[in-house]
Amino acid sequence: MINLIIETSKYLMILLIACYTFFNFRFFSFPDFERKRIMCARQNQAMFLIHLLAYLIIYLKTDEERILLFYGAQVIFFLAYIYLYRLFYRNVSRLLVNNACMLMCVGFIMLTRISFERAVRQFVIVAAAAVVTWVIPLIIARVWQLSRGAWLYAGIGIFLLGLVCVLGNTTFGAQLSLRIAGVSFQPSEFVKITFVFFVASMFYRSTDFAAVTVTTAVAAFHVLILVASKDLGSALLFFITYLFMLFVATSNWLYLGSGLLAGTGAAWLAYFLFPHVQTRVSAWLNPWSDIDIGGYQITQSLFAIGTGGWFGMGLYQGMPYKIPVVEKDFIFAAISEELGGIFAMCVLFICIGCFLQFMMIAGQLQAVFFKLIAFGLGSVYITQVFLTVGGVTKFIPSTGVTLPFVSYGGSSILSTFVLFNIIQGLYILKRNEEDDYEEG
Length: 440
What we know:
Order of helices and strands: HHHHHHHEEEHHHHHHHHHH
Number of strands: 3
Oligomer: single chain
Strand content: under 5%
Distance between the termini: 63 Å
Strand order of the largest sheet: 1-2-3
Radius of gyration: 22 Å
Helix content: over 70%
Largest sheet: 3 strands, antiparallel
């Protein structure tokens, strides 16, 4: 009987997330806010039904009452986050709130299935991060001096990255994190935000050759520190973000082409300098030749995706724990195996929907500084998604980057909340200006 419920629920969850994804893109076709609200309400219904079905399966498979308590705590959190956000910020982007909750919902489901203890820790971090970052939209709308702190942003970023390079803990061959008072965090997750603010501040002042040269030098210094720490995934993320912001600010194809050539050369050099990069590239090119060591993670990921097929094995029917670090940068493989390729693709489309919303907000903003911030953060977000999914599916070599709001990790969760709330602040600012204009 339980197996029948699991099998039926699997198809229902696929149908529901397909509907959620359809509403996500249908939202953009409506010019009036009332019909957009209806789409968002339908998204909420689909999300809560997916959440209910998944935790019903988890409870039936584990028969543990703590699962019910944990499910109830999540429902309360999601309801509070969705409706309190609307209460305090009347012009909030409901689509971004919904998508953030949907991605967190998928993350909680998979983490609970993989490790209940880690899922609980993730939930505590999510709740705390939601509270701490709640005020960011208010700050964005009130503090106009944010564009004046270019060198402050650069100084903070370089200091934190340098600290990791000198004192950081080594994980999988790279220095990634700092431990303070027993708490470990990854500074690069937050520096990517200060980095965007630095670049936006500099290009807001000027985009002449001298300004571009100085900004490029400081941006390159960020990247070089990450390379020295062997955190090449973050280095690539910073590089792509800067190149995108440079092109948006200047519309200069020569800068774009030169940047791509420089990046290609740097990647080629990194391959010969760092043995762990050679290992990852070899595993990417032919993981089957070194399946016991270097290629083990990617081959297990491909096995999981292939085994899951389009419709998945069903929760607790697969073996995601065979993939090393599955709860972090390989969470997409676990989703594909047990919830199915269709479900995983819908998760990816939801991420793309967030990016489209970021770009639409950026395009509507009049202030150049805020426009560059939105474009920069949007490029950070979609590049991170691409690096994660691309590494899991063997489209590109694995970079160790997490999937925002889905993967396990406190630093990733907090930085993603900051990123989304900055974008929300820009959206609210734009909507408030439109309302004031109409009333005037």
